[in-house]
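Researcher: Next sequence.
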Amino acid sequence: MEKAQTFEEALARLEAVVKELENGKIPLDKALELFGEGVSLAQFCHRQLEEAEQKISILMTDAKGNLILKEISPPDLNT
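Model: Next structure:
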């Protein structure tokens, strides 16, 4: 049984694919194969990031000092 790929593994492989394609010293067949793999890896990483974004939440204190759970989106992280 094959182990599920992590985000970090997929991102590292995507970076390796991009470097190999940028090198330009591979046959067209191999370049097309790598391009397809890169697209799949990018889609996988994008899905993983979307799922993580949906799970991001922080604990905050309301005016009475009670802890509340607040869902935040990435733009809120900069404030």
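Model: The chain has one domain: 7-78. Residues 61 and 78 are 19 Å apart (CA to CA).
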